[in-house]
Amino acid sequence: MSNFSYTVGIPIFCVGFTHDDNLILAGGGGSGRSGVQNKITIYKIDKDKKTLSTLIERVLSRDEDAPMSLSVHPTEPVMAFGINSAINRIEAGENENCRVFQYSDERIEPVHNKGTLSSKDPEVYQKVTRFSNDGLLLATGGTDGVVALLKYPTLNPALPITQFKGHEIMDLDFSADGKHIAVVSAQNLWIISTAKGRVLEAITNPVLNKKKPFVFRTCRFGRGAFSNVLYTVVNGDNKQKPFVCMWDASNWTRIRTLTIGSRPITACTISPDGKLIAFGSSDMSIRVCSAKSLQVLMTVPKTHAFSVTSMAFNSDASLLVSGSVDAACHVIPIPKTFPKNNNFAILVFTLLFLFLAVAIQVYLTAQK
């Protein structure tokens, strides 16, 4: 099976999978009269025909924003989204930005709405949504620097809201045991205790590659055998290659830093078994890497017309799906095994070739 793209007619901001491996896509044209619907759709992927067929769909209000972030509950048929209310409700301080939906074979139904953003600015939105691995907590991060930790299913506050003033929350993630949340803004990485709400560690102004300033973009805790690792993406400008940093989650020291691609990374996801980590870049390419070594295992160029906004693996990591504002998703089959890295063999061959060339040159010189 080869890669394929499928156009769904709306800008895609959210990609996920249900527990039975049907594809969740959500997005839209936002509030106003753009003519582009806001909706959540669950599709069945036909890998042989390279098509998607709609199973269930929920069209959302045109007066409200499009779904901008998604997290699928780890055990229940439940999805949590970041969706801003209508502008007049936001300006009245009534933004119910955190939305929880339940899905079945017949329909997608709203279950809970919760406001975690107090800003009356319609441009402020819930950029990140994340369930903990046990599904008992739900964290949200806003572009106004607000991080909220909620109990599931009540959505009552688990802790008081944390406000990082002057910062936009770029990403956040729970540790495997749920005891910590990693949060990144452009200039900061914070580790927060989910028990006390205290900031346990703060890393500011990432400087790599000969002291050039970089910015954090995403963060993900590893899974399975790599649950003690935190991965962060650190971008420079378009002239600087992005880095992926691996941190030891026991003491928050950096254990490895490697460049991945040549353009800023815009999206990141980890396979359910924790063995693979994928990155989408502003050059529209996608790279699948080993979570252990960050070795690039496969590269898929030109997946979209615009930057990748969201990605997700299915349950057995046999598929990786990406979305973009180009209104298309890209479906990538993931092989069970990857070709072994031949860099060492190439190095040995090169050295032998150089040695042979030098030996021949010495021999010819001696014959003169």
UniProtKB/TrEMBL annotation:
Protein name: Quinon protein alcohol dehydrogenase-like superfamily
Keywords tagged on the record: Endoplasmic reticulum, ER-Golgi transport, Membrane, Protein transport, Repeat, Transmembrane, Transmembrane helix, Transport, WD repeat
Coiled coil (residue ranges): none
Keyword Repeat listed: yes
Transmembrane segments: 344-364
GO BP annotation list: endoplasmic reticulum to Golgi vesicle-mediated transport; protein transport; regulation of COPII vesicle coating
Cellular compartment(s): Endoplasmic reticulum membrane
Membrane topology annotation: Single-pass membrane protein
GO molecular function per UniProt: guanyl-nucleotide exchange factor activity
GO terms for cellular component: endoplasmic reticulum membrane
A Pfam family this chain is assigned to: WD40
Domain of life: Eukaryota
